[in-house]
Design a protein that fits this description.
Layout: H1 2-6, E1 10-14, E2 23-28, E3 36-39, E4 42-45, E5 51-53, E6 57-59, E7 66-72, E8 75-82, E9 87-91, E10 97-109, E11 119-122, E12 126-130, E13 133-139, E14 143-151, E15 153-158, E16 164-169, E17 173-178, E18 184-187, H2 191-196, E19 220-224, H3 227-234, H4 244-248, H5 255-263, H6 268-275, H7 279-286
Parallel strand pairs: 1-7, 10-11
Antiparallel strand pairs: 1-2, 2-5, 3-4, 3-6, 4-19, 6-9, 7-8, 8-10, 9-10, 10-13, 11-12, 12-15, 13-14, 14-17, 15-16, 17-18
Helix pairs in contact: 5-6
Length: 288
């Protein structure tokens, strides 16, 4: 299989019913640049056995592909492939595995019914959720595209405020949306989508390689995050970034980070009370 030849990077995520915060483990590294992750306000490089967790911002380089295997109740519940040059955020959601995709490609296979694992992947314009289906999400600069490959899947469109309008989808349905335009659907993906899709996504996702054990390891620390590492996430849809102001506020101690953030008109309004507090609020802050 093409997957077996290309993929040796495997991540295993466990989502036990009694544990509100899932974890993940990198089982091996593939050819090409390793993936990086932002945890808290620090940048790390992933390596074999690296434990991942919700809240991580994950980035793949050109030529790098990842496989994430999610487990529910000790049994495999879903596999997600992450394509090259992709950016995703493992959001903390108590009732599902939720991946926000800023750019790039993911393929989701939630395996057989009865695993009780709901997995959603969402772009800025379109999203999908399934507990027993397979779909591919592509997030481009100006368009989101979803191909419902098989099984069951819920398709939904996002408003600018993050509100969702859902609709049932059928196998082989291909959906595309630009900006706030209506969702356009057709049967089967168009040629441009297929040509741009990572070639391994055309094959079933590999489950057998998940059995290879690796010792747990700490991620390799690189440095504190620079503004460019997180700029796109600070300007992401509002419902993706609760807590980001609190999380990244410590980096304002870095003059370069502070200057770059203050110059970014996309996020200025959200950070204005901290960057440029009014005299009244500043005085109030100083009171006990």
């Amino acid at each position: 299989m093409l997957w077996a030849a290309i993929f040796s990077l495997l991540l295993t995520a466990r989502v036990p019913a009694s544990t509100p915060e899932p974890t993940a483990e990198i089982m091996s590294l593939a050819d090409g640049p390793p993936c990086s992750l932002v945890r808290g306000v620090q940048l790390f490089r992933a390596r074999e056995g690296t434990l991942l967790r919700t809240g991580d911002l994950i980035a793949t380089g050109p030529g790098t592909l990842l496989i994430l295997q999610f487990t529910a109740g000790g049994a495999p519940g879903a596999i997600v492939a992450v394509g090259p040059s992709s950016r995703l955020y493992w959001m903390d959601r108590p009732d599902r595995v939720s991946l926000a995709v800023r750019t790039g490609w993911v393929k989701v296979d939630t395996l057989a019914p009865g695993q009780n694992l709901l997995l959603e992947a969402q772009g800025p314009r379109l999203g999908a959720a399934s507990a027993a289906g397979t779909y591919v999400l592509h997030v481009g600069d100006a368009v989101d595209e979803i191909f419902h490959e098989s099984g069951s899947m819920q398709l939904w469109a996002r408003s600018a405020e993050g509100l969702r309008t859902g609709a049932a989808s059928g196998p082989s349905q291909f959906s595309r949306r630009s900006a706030d335009d209506p969702v356009r659907t057709r049967r089967g993906p168009d040629a441009a989508f297929v040509d741009a899709m990572p070639p391994p996504f055309r094959d079933p996702l590999p489950f057998g390689v998940a059995a290879r054990p690796h010792p747990a390891a700490e991620p390799e620390w690189v440095r504190d995050v620079a503004y460019d590492d997180v700029a796109e996430w600070l300007a992401a849809p509002r419902d993706w970034r609760p807590g980001f102001v609190r999380r990244f506020r410590p980096r304002l101690k870095d003059p370069a980070f502070l200057r770059a953030l203050d110059a970014d008109v996309r996020v200025r309004s959200e950070w204005a009370p901290i960057l440029h507090p009014s005299p009244a609020s500043a005085e109030g802050t100083g009171n006990p």
